[in-house]
Amino acid sequence: MKSDADAAESDQKETLNVLFIGNSYTARHNLAQVVKKMAEAGHPKLTFKPTTVIYGGRRLVDHWNLGSQNYVKLYELTPEEEKQTITGLQKDAKDPRNRYAATALKRHQKLLNELDAEHPRWDVVVLQSYRDDLKGADSLYAQYAPRFAELAKKQGARVILYETTPNTQNAKALKKAPESAAVMQKAKAIAALAKQVDASAAPMSLAGFHCQTERPDMTLRFINDAHLNQTMAYLTACCLYAALFDESPEGLPVDSITDIRYFDNKDRTKDRDGNPITTMFSAKDRADLQRIAWKSYQQFKTLRDN
User: What pTM, to 2 d.p., does this model score?
Assistant: First the structure.
């Protein structure tokens, strides 16, 4: 039997159910698990429970066509809705050009069989962009993020826009500061979208720009792989932490990132560039990345709220 002290401590513990919808920019480095480590390090009484719906290279419009919106409304999803999604995917899977329809079909068939089980009500839904956010208010991201956000809000969930910035990540150290005009234009568009749907954001265009400006020695993507490297993954996790809790990640003890793809698909000890697959950040590098993430998040909030 629990003592009064044990019961009181148990009552103070919290659970945060977070759904991540994205592609390899969410999958790489097990990003959701890194955020979990940071969240639980910063909030010791918190249990962070991440769930991911990932399709490589896909955008929010693709996720919608693959039925990922059903995961957003999972708490109240009906068998009829899921069967309708499955029927549509069965037709799509017959098209050999639609290479993800068959995978999505299997995922939804499995989900249909598990609908009787208890499912969480999401506290937060993270919506990742990917090259679909370059046209501002006319972008596909601006069209589909509100659709997902509306469903999330009906579940009582907060929304975080995870803005990726593959076009501006540097594979080599910079010799001069990057141009700010395109970055600010994109950041303002994301801030406007966030204001429209009452969301927060991990503003990676701003974070990448500030990192390149203040720490030009750091690189943000692999040379042999177009994805974010361990440094950008750490910076992203810090920005997601800031968006989750509206507080600075400065001082968090998490000091390493490990990728999930390895050199020549053979050597699991090395990353795609042949360096150690796990990056251990020095105290200075960790502090700088945490500080830059918080600075970027605060700048995003100013853009959103003004």
Answer: 0.95
